[in-house]
UniProtKB/TrEMBL annotation:
Domain Type II methyltransferase M.TaqI-like, chain residue ranges per copy: 82-180
Record-given protein name: site-specific DNA-methyltransferase (adenine-specific)
Cross-referenced Pfam families: Eco57I
Reactions this protein catalyses: a 2'-deoxyadenosine in DNA + S-adenosyl-L-methionine = an N(6)-methyl-2'-deoxyadenosine in DNA + S-adenosyl-L-homocysteine + H(+)
Family of the protein in this entry: Belongs to the N(4)/N(6)-methyltransferase family.
EC main group: transferase
Gene Ontology biological process terms in this record: methylation
EC number: 2.1.1.72
Keywords carried by this UniProt record: Methyltransferase, S-adenosyl-L-methionine, Transferase
InterPro entries tied to this protein: DNA_methylase_N6_adenine_CS, MethylTrfase_TaqI-like_dom, N4_N6_ade-DNA_methylase, SAM-dependent_MTases_sf
GO molecular function, one term: site-specific DNA-methyltransferase (adenine-specific) activity
Amino acid sequence: MLTAKRALGQYSTPLRTVDYMVRKVIEKIRHLKSPKILDPAVGDGVFVERLMASGVNPAFIHAFDIDPDAVQANAHIPNIRHQDFLTVQGGEFDAIIGNPPYKSKRESRYIKENKARLERQFGEIGIRNLYAMFVHHALSNLKEGGTLCFIVQDSFLTNVYYQDFRRFILDHCLIDEIVLAPRKLFHHTDADVRTAIITLTKCTGPENREKRSAHVMTLIDRLQEEDDYFHPPQDKVQKLEQRYFERMEKHNFFINVPVSIIDIILKTPLKLGHVVDGGTGISTGNDAKFLRKPSGIAEEDPDWVPFYKNGGTKDAWFYETPYRIHRDWETPGRQYKDFMTRNAQHYFKEGITCSSMGVEFSASYMPAGCLFGVNANFFSDDREHLFYVLALLNSTLAKYIIRAVFNRTNMVTAGYIKRIPYIEPAPELKTRIADIARTIVASKKANPQFDYRPLQCEIDALIYEIYGVDPADRKLLEQFCGNLYEAV
Ligand SMILES: C[S@@+](CC[C@H](N)C(=O)[O-])C[C@H]1O[C@@H](n2cnc3c(N)ncnc32)[C@H](O)[C@@H]1O
């Protein structure tokens, strides 16, 4: 059951995190005689308390909350107001700090009830999540040159739905810092949410375009502990001009990705989507109704064909799917409006099936005669090319590009995979890599426990060579992919 506080998005921010953010803000407003600072979502008052504990005059601090109980509980704050922040206008604050609510369109009653107004107000970034609207609105209520420091859900970094939001930030701010907060930060509240601390300076107008592009951002990779904010390990810190985010397709905000890898992405004109066909397949709308899971050979019915829907790490290269779907998928499906089909021209063809959900990413060979679900699936009539692409998709380089640059969330759809840069290898190299891929698939077919690691290393090395990945960067890629759960 969601408590009333949870429904409003109330989660208390841990103290060391608050202290780090307070320090960032104080550094930026130190020169001002009487700064105006706002916490627009005060909750239990932790930001205000730590601002005051750091010596900020309480008269400078303003606080809002939509929850009257939160306002009452913080009655000692001089400038506290029961207020919906998203309706405030002309704030003219020097700094805005806090932890706004993270509620998606689906979860938030507030968004549903105020949809028309929010769409008018935030149409340029979309109304997907309250935190993004809070950032947008905070920027409108900041003075030019003012500072925003928020801890927010980190989905905005790479998720395709936040592309307009990222563009908006690039057009209105200097990104001073993005820190990926420790993975377990909100676990004490049972909230499994990945977060980032963003510090932005409002800097608008076309006259400041070059200033924004040339601005050097500090990007700090996922930290282990809160104490690391104050002394982050140097291999996690990257300084980069904002123009890299501007140039990147869909303006992905990547963190601590070597420039050599970014250059590969920016400078390779051909993408995987240009050299293989495919995408999603059948969405049954009701797997329990349309899929079967036979428990043994005796139960197998030749009219029910293997259905591949989402592999995992252990399923890389080849696995037998436990699911079956009727080969005459069309007849029963036609009666159900939620049963949807795409790419039917590829049904029953030999291909590649990718995982879509989960921290890991992997690709598996899919034999002819199968059907496939809403994960990504790729096809080519050229068998050598197909096996080469399978090797490429299972390479550390591709995994890194997908999980560190294109999509830090756990949902990898065909659209992201198709953006992998594609370099055609020399013919003999391609044959060699495709042969190794064939060997791994055949060996895993014969023995699902087959240890393919030595062959995988060989493929990784050859793919690095094709893409010209610097040996010094290879280690970073391997570290990231070897510990994806903590890294993303
Ligand atoms: C994640 S909590 C943050 C609490 C506190 N700042 C902290 O970090 O511990 C978000 C707060 O935003 C408040 N809130 C939600 N929607 C709001 C709105 N439209 N205007 C102002 N406050 C809002 C909730 O009541 C809640 O107290």
